[in-house]
Amino acid sequence: MNIRKLALGTAMAVLTGVSTAAVVPAQAQEQIYVPLLTYRTGSFAGSGIPIADGMADYLRMLNERDGGIGGVKLLVEECETGYDTKKGVECYESTKGKGAVIYNPYSTGITLQLIPKASADKIPVLSMAYGLSAAAVGNTFPWIYNPPVTYWDGASVFIKHVAEKEGGLDKLKGKKIGLIHLDAPFGKEPIAVLENLAKEFGFELKLYPVAAADMQNQGSVWLNIRRDRPDWIYNQGWGAMNPTAVKEAAKNNYPMEKLVGVWWAGGDDDARAGGDQAKGYKSLNFHASGSNFPVIQDIQKHVVDKGFSKVPKDKVGENLYNRGVYNSMLIAEAIRTAQKITGKKVVNAEDVRRGLEALDVTEARLGEMGMKGFAAPVKLSCDDHSGHNKVYVAQWDGTKWTQGSDWMEPMKDKVRPLLESAAKDYAAANTWPARSEPCQKGS
Amino acid sequence: MFYREAGQYKTSYAADMAVFPIRQDLIGVLLMLAVAYVAIPMFGSEFFLSSVMIPFLVFSLAAIGLNVLTGYTGLISLGTGAFMGVGAYACYKLTTIFPGVNIIVWIVVSGFFSALVGVLFGIPSLRIKGFYLAVATLAAQFFLQWCFVRIPWLYNYNASGAIEVAQRTLFDIPITGARATPETRYFVLLTIVVVLTWFASNLVHGRIGRAWMAVRDMDIAAELMGIKLLDTKLLAFAVSSFYAGVAGACMMFLWYGGGEASDAFNINQSFNILFMVIIGGLGSLIGSFFGAAFISTLPTVLKFGLPAIGIPLAGATAEHLTHIVVGGLIIFFLIVEPHGLARLWQIGKQKLRMWPFPY
Fold this sequence. Notes:
The complex is a heterodimer. By secondary structure, chain A is α/β, with parallel strands linked by helices.
């Protein structure tokens, strides 16, 4: 019995080893392998599914319409993470051997795990507007990219928006600004920046943490808010926390147009939960929603109508779906830039890293892609892996998101020094190696 | 057949009471060690080592810890996840304050911090039993997890609240951090698990283990026989939390390599380990390994193993199917053998000993 069990165990081990090795030759064909770490299961699936659909559909559309990128087809494979760090790392470990050129972890927890791993394996990580804010410092993190903005930029844009509505930065003095946030690393991201800005502009910062277990039970938090009566509230929440916050704000008669969410608090379902009273709720955004863009119509024509997509037809063009499309656009543009720099057709992970560093999505390029008005230009550099690009404040009109402000620059001069010092701390705490990759000049 | 005691004569009490009653058991264990130390690192791919074997060993260690408490002493705990967290944070603080000391030393020492916290939360166990004790340990889970989020000192005031695992070496070979290969991490972890399992085996077979089992079977009778309940129960809490703490430190330093630690040691983790102990077999060390393999490894092997042998499954479908299969298997095994996988293993061995005339 012992021996039999042992034989079985060894056979299993060998089998797994051999079979993982056997998959590798698949890339020998003219393909670029792009794994997508997505979550269609688990407690955050509600926001994960539209993002996953958007990402998969845009890449599929490139394959269908253009035959891939630069004539090379993309081999896209989804791996389910369930927003779980352990499963996410498993996905990374199981796909990296197949020649993955880029990773999008889609969870702050998974991103933190992948930062050291991917840097050692030399595969770029694109954590689009999430993950470690300090990763924007390219000199420390050559393999990590977080365009178009970091959480810290987002918080600074919120303050800018408040100043604009109040009539200038000097009018912030004496105001009370609240931060309702998930009591987890992700939620606490903007605190440092807001504290710094509070000192500088003289407003008072009030913190309202919401424990992950209490996401749907915010009654006591809102009691405090009712007592303090903050003039503005910034919402750094995710998942079930957002619709609850909007609902509670409506119940407590908090003026909706003074509640501003981070971009992850801007799902259609988040705002819809508040009913009619949610009208006026705001959230930061870096791309447009709606299907009124040539690129979305192309996706409908080439992918959705042909039945290649998992998305329900009426969900195409929702905010989070478009975020997936935007994310895939960044992936595709990085690959395209890499092809242009290296002159190779089938690029590898190191080439894509150079492509990301030289990424320059101009207004003209957006027009070519059918994304005019869909997003602001994005430009990265060797030193700046986030770009501190423009965002705008979206406003819920009761049925859909509309553009509630102009595109605004983050306060780069305020945020950048904080990022630099955070990157330095990270490097010190992790005995992080100095950057050895040469800088990629824009092509 | 080959598994029987014919021809093996026991001439002393010590031989009769030995952990391995027949020689084949000893050979079997040695063979298993050989496979673990030689065959698996030789033939296993990097993915197999880092995503299957390392999690399996970490959870085995945690399950042994909980088994000491729940299986051997009969005290239910829902705080295992938090005790693992104490180990992880203790190890992190120790290695940042004293970076010169070898990390393996700190991984083991961090278990003592966890043991201390475990004893503290074990004190109510003298008064309350059963489900009520479970609720009391639940308090430990929530309180400690609250500390992990709210005490920035624990994670060195990191902006994202994450533990950051620096590179540490043993004989100049990196064993933690991103540059440590899965093989080295696996060897370090395997050695820790083997040594601690051996230690646990000696504990449960000796005087202390007997006292634990006496308390489990009937605490009043045990007390009348002269076993001090408080000491015994607290010792069980201490040993159990020690194992959990070492498992937690191993999890962060040898498996995860840092990250959002507060989230990794949540209530789900505690439940998972409790399920491992129940499905593996209460009061059995080998059961802890079976349980860990069943709950933690089987889903991974199903999810990535099936596509690898040519069954086309991808993304969410694989995940859903894994849930269905594992759920079904749990029900199946609990119906077939309510005493856990360890009992099945034991029955199998018993039958083999009597073969070909089992009764």
